[in-house]
Amino acid sequence: MMMSSSSRNDKAQVFINFRGADLRSHFAPYLHDVLHKNGINAFIDDKLEVGDDLTDLFEKIEESTVAVAIISSRYTESDWCLNELVKIKECVDRRTLRVIPVFYKLEISIVKKLKGSFGLQLWKLWRKENHCNRDDRILKWDAALQDVSGKKAMRYLENSNEADFADKMAKHIQDYLNKDKPPREENPKPQGKREENVKPQGKGGDNPNPEEGSNMASSSIKPGKQCLK
């Protein structure tokens, strides 16, 4: 399997999840290049083939700080896209990853309610792969789609300018990455001494505030809230 990133030896900061049939020849690689020019190490798979192992892709997702999930009209034709999105949701639920949904020339309501061909493609994909043994992947795919459709997202409209949109995304991602960096101490305290009354920093510590306008409740979707049952 051949993959592409801003630097193959460096840890990816951004993982770009997209449907190649819709975006491989224009927007996805253009966005990748813009992020690279802004000093952001983004990962994009450029030649994923049938039979290739998804393990490497999952590792790239886990090591990233931000995932960009670009949802387009043919997104639900690909189990690769959907399985990546499930992995992204798992990392978001663990609060080790931030996802930025991008709805590319697609109404959010179509994704949320699985309308028209978007929802039909999802059913066809599951039935095609599980004609003898139906598993629960379709529920996981649905939960992941519901999760991103409930978050604050960016929309690429029919009349959107590709360059302006990519620049806006790069700035948004760069601002978040800069905010995510821990501040450097000018005068670090010696490690040999322990201060009194220091609160434990384990699981009981404070979590960072979510982005204003985001729907964090959708990160853990109950079965009753899914479109598919």
TrEMBL record:
The record's keywords, sorted A to Z, are: NAD
The domain of life is Eukaryota
InterPro entries of this UniProt entry? Answer: TIR_dom (IPR000157), Toll_tir_struct_dom_sf (IPR035897)
The protein's matches in SMART domains, at most eight in alphabetical order, are given as: TIR (SM00255)
- Annotated stretches, region: Disordered: 176-229
Q: Where is the TIR domain?
A: 10-177
Question: Which residues fall in a compositionally biased region of kind Basic and acidic residues?
Answer: 176-198
Tell me what this protein is called. Answer: (rape) hypothetical protein
| Organism (species) | Brassica napus (Rape)
**One BP annotation, GO:** signal transduction
